[in-house]
Amino acid sequence: MIDLHTHTFFSDGDLLPSELVCRAKNAGYKTIALTDHCDFSNMDFVMRQVTRITAGLCRYYKINVIVGCEITYIPPPLISKAVQRARKLGAKIVVVHGESPVEPVPKGTNRAAILSKCDILAHPGYISEKEVRLAKKNNVLLEITTRNGHRIGNRHVAKLAKKIGAKLVMDTDTHLAEDLLNEKKIKNVLKEAKLTYSDFKQMQINANQLILNS
Ligand SMILES: [Zn+2]
Ligand SMILES: [Zn+2]
Fold this sequence. Notes:
Oligomer: single chain
Bound molecules: zinc ion
CATH superfamily: Metal-dependent hydrolases
Number of strands: 7
């Protein structure tokens, strides 16, 4: 399994990166991206700290650990600059915290994220058809999330992505150990979003392609 959106206690997750990675390995993960919430205040620090341990974790836990970040609550006109900065600091997967129905993210975040050509637009909520077309054009993956609250928007995102042919990815947005992916969770979320198991497989392929290109 591949999961490209998780949090450690370098932002608001509960676990040390080492514990999260170890638990992911035990849960059957092949790849995990550590994508803590970042703005310009903590990005340098988080990238540096996470990068220090990834090689050792990959080697000894035998799992692919990717350094990433989730650009969060940055004003839309500054999102592109933040994405570029994150890449410069070594982020291989840059997620942007999208306009979830359950959080007051500034309007225009989804569009700015897609224009910035981030890798994944997380929980984009009631994203417009125009923005989904733009995501397809800019090769930005739209997220189907297993996280409570954010997942209210999944069905809408899935429906538009299918209609337009934009690519999807399933992530957990893990903050606690029990948030990691398992078969039961996958099935529930697929059902809720009116997606099938072959859609899940395609989402894993999309995630894998993203890793290969990053
Ligand atoms: Zn988020
Ligand atoms: Zn997140």
